[in-house]
Amino acid sequence: MQEIKFNGNQSDFYIDLRKRVNEYFKDTNKEKTGDYRIIVKALFFSISFITSYILLVFVDMPVWLSIPLCVYAGIITAGIGFNMMHDGSHGSFSQNKSLNKMAELSLNFLGCSSFFWNVKHVVVHHTYTNIDGMDDDIGNEPMLRLCETQKRYAFHALQQYYFVFIYGLLYLGWIFLLDFIKYFSRKVGNKDNIHINASTHVGFWSTKVIYSLLFVALPIWQLGFVKFITGYSVYMFVTGITISLVFQLAHCVENMAFDHPMKDGKIANDWATHQVATTSNFATQSKLVSFFTGGLNFQIEHHLFPKISHVHYPEISKIVKNVCAKHGISYFEQKTLLNAIVSHVKHLKEMGKK
Ligand SMILES: [Zn+2]
Question: Among 221, 246, 313, 350, which is 20 to 30 Å from 299 by CA?
Fold first, then answer.
């Protein structure tokens, strides 16, 4: 495989930006990892999830109550991913390594392999953002066409409508299909021949077995198959659509660059400029969106500083905006969540056209 290189990793922009951000942490005497705020959030999401699980599996309740609770559990599950697992996988949840690992392993508890998430997200997506054929996040072919270099089929003309179903199936597919494809092919995005050691094999299979027992077998035994499949479908659909939307709203909206390497394997921009050109913020003024998405609405700051916890992004974003303006780099953001969703739909419509 050809080696892909950015046009420099130490641009004036990135050097300037890092210096200003480091000064901020020095001046305010803050750690770059999460503080008490992330612990409060982790407690909120964990307690909400466990309570919902116990109520849904062990308490016989009417449908009008159980369905909204399944929706709530789906939103909370996505919230655990955004607020605990994501920071944990980047090593920014806490300075305490065990706490960090626990946050990361919340993903295994929810049925997915944190090992393959690390390769897919922390390594591939964060390095080769929006590069077709490398970034697994935009590799949803043939179901969706997310950039111009991908092959277009006639049914893509309708992708701005049916994407909802694809996103809704993502979490289910992640647990029971996509992880297994990665496991058996040893391939994620542009990484192949991935080495899997003994403890990762054990971790992978125990994750799948324990999840299936706790979230499929036990609920069927307690509730019966019909009640289980109804509630589980709602729960999985809500989780899938929430996770997919939050990640897609940051990279697959209008104005985003979708790059591809030149013949010599070089990417036109330096790494930091590439990150800003391929990433968009949304609803940064909304405290609710910022709380729930674990700072993924400050995605530009996250891509430039993935090892800094999301609790610091609102402050860091002021610095990033200033430095971008100083170096003439466009900084994209959608004012509200609705604006971002509309922009994503427009992008899908554009990519579906002939
Ligand atoms: Zn990330």
Answer: 350
What is the chain's alpha carbon radius of gyration, rounded to the nearest angstrom?
Answer: 20
Token pair in block for residue 350: 């554009």
Q: Of 346, 324, 169, 331, nearest to 249 (Cα)? A: 346
Alpha-carbon span 47 to 169, nearest angstrom: 26
Whole-number Å distance, alpha carbon 293 to ligand 1 midpoint, is 12
Query: What tokens were used for 200?
Result: 């990762």
What is the whole-number distance in angstroms between the Cα of residue 187 and the centre of ligand 1? 19
Question: What's the CA-to-centroid distance between 33 and ligand 1, angstroms?
Answer: 14
Cα 302 to averaged position of ligand 1 atoms, centre (Å): 7
Q: Is the model's pTM score more than 0.85?
A: yes
pLDDT tens, residue by residue, 104-124: 999 999 999 999 999 999 999
Residue-wise pLDDT tens digits, 214-239: 999 999 999 999 999 999 999 999 99
Q: How far is the CA of 290 from the centre of ligand 1 (A)?
A: 15
Report how far ligand 1's centroid is from the alpha carbon of 222 (Å): 37
Helix, strand, or coil (residue 236) = helix
Give distance in angstroms: CA of 126 to centre of ligand 1.
Answer: 7
Q: How far apart are CA 258 and CA 129, in angstroms?
A: 8
Taking alpha carbons only, the member of 334, 258, 255 closest to residue 298 is 334
Q: Residue 188, SS3?
A: strand
Phi, psi of 282 (to 5 degrees): -150, 145
